[in-house]
Specification:
Length: 372
């Protein structure tokens, strides 16, 4: 019988989307073993690429105009399958949409994400999966909630968008929240388990990559603390939720989702469920997963380890492809990866690996096929 291989990678950031990675690996496998049965399953960890993974699993795209991270209109999309909508923060208020600096770190808002969620609810979604990686904002989800009907007030009236503006917040009114939220099931899909505040919180850990210097980090953390304090009169659990794992994800959008009653789940598990991954593993002889950089961070909720865990439950071996790897063989095996195949194994020049990732991936996949 011909071997059956499931190819379930994440993107190679800066080079190839998850769909493109899967296609290149499949081409390399078939080039070496024409009879091989390959099932391509692009995956994501809840961040950039989550909607793409849902579309690859058979969902349909819905296009909408929403507010970008700095207030500009952006054309974006989400995915719908039946009564389930999959929304991706990176596609509407993502860090890749701006040139980050101290000013953008203070002003960026999650408002557009709330607008997309509202659109999905208005069009019949009963379950909304919110993939929240890759955010530009550090506003605790305040912009998202405002777009969903919350009113945030200060001494001079309504508080503007952005994390810094929360320092003037004195009152929150949640009475006008979108009526369909009461019956909807929100799923917070993320690979981040930070709390909202403090040295392990949203501003301190992720603010610097969004352009925040130490002073800006302190100001944003103080603003988030003001946000929590203003919520306590209307949500007595506000402070407890700020300490929950995932509250600090995506600049605190995780906190906003938890305030709305969202279920927090590892992003890769959510995406694998959407793709029907367990069913697609039936009869497989091998799983090929991967991402651009395989390192210590990969061991904490990233796609390759999530895929390896799912395959292990079926007793199917897993190998990984990547641009580069800093994991030794023992760490890789402990993570459920039988072997790791990096582009740098065949091309030491990293710049060339980025520029020619597709062709190099096909060569790696041919090596894997030869060993089947």
């Amino acid at each position: 019988m011909s071997p059956r291989v499931v190819v379930a990678p994440d993107k190679f950031k800066g080079s190839l989307s998850a769909t493109e990675v899967a296609a290149r690996v499949a081409a390399g496998l078939r080039g070496e073993r024409p009879a091989v049965d390959v099932d391509e399953v692009p995956v994501a960890d809840g961040g950039e690429g989550t909607v793409e993974a849902a579309l690859a699993a058979g969902f349909r795209p819905v296009r909408v105009t929403a507010t970008g991270p700095l207030g500009e209109p952006v054309e974006t999309r989400y995915a719908v399958g039946g009564e389930v909508a999959v929304v991706e923060m990176a596609a509407v208020t993502g860090l890749q949409m701006i040139t980050p600096d101290g000013g953008t770190a203070r002003r960026a808002s999650s408002r557009g994400l709330g607008e997309v969620i509202a659109h999905a609810l208005d069009h019949g979604a009963k379950t909304v999966v919110v993939g929240i990686g890759g955010s530009a904002s550090t506003d605790g989800g305040a912009g998202m909630l405002a777009a969903l009907g919350a009113r945030l007030s200060g001494p001079d009236g309504d508080v503007p968008n952005g994390g810094e503006a929360l320092r003037t917040l004195t009152r929150v009114d949640l009475g006008g929240l979108h009526p369909r939220l009461a019956d909807a099931h929100l799923v917070l899909a993320s690979d981040v388990d930070n709390p909202l505040l403090g040295p392990a919180g949203a501003a301190a850990v992720y603010g610097p990559q969004k352009g925040a210097d130490p002073t800006t980090v302190d100001d944003l953390d103080a603003a988030l603390a003001t946000w929590v304090a203003a919520l306590e009169p209307v949500r007595p659990e506000a402070r407890r939720l700020a300490e929950e794992p995932g509250a600090g994800a995506a600049g605190g959008v995780g906190y906003g989702c938890l305030l709305l009653g969202a279920e927090f789940r590892p992003g890769v598990e959510v995406v694998l469920d959407l793709a029907g991954f367990d069913r697609r593993l039936e009869g497989a002889d091998l799983v090929v997963t991967g991402e651009g950089s395989l390192d210590e961070q990969s061991l904490h909720g990233k796609t390759p380890v999530g895929v390896a865990r799912a395959a292990a439950a079926h007793g199917i071996p897993v190998v990984a492809v990547c641009g580069r790897s800093t994991l030794d063989a023992r760490r890789a095996r402990d993570a459920g990866l039988q072997s790791v195949h990096a582009l740098t194994d065949i091309e030491p020049d990293v710049a060339r690996c980025v520029a020619d990732a597709g062709n190099l991936l096909e060569r790696l996949a041919a090596r894997i096929a030869a060993s089947l």
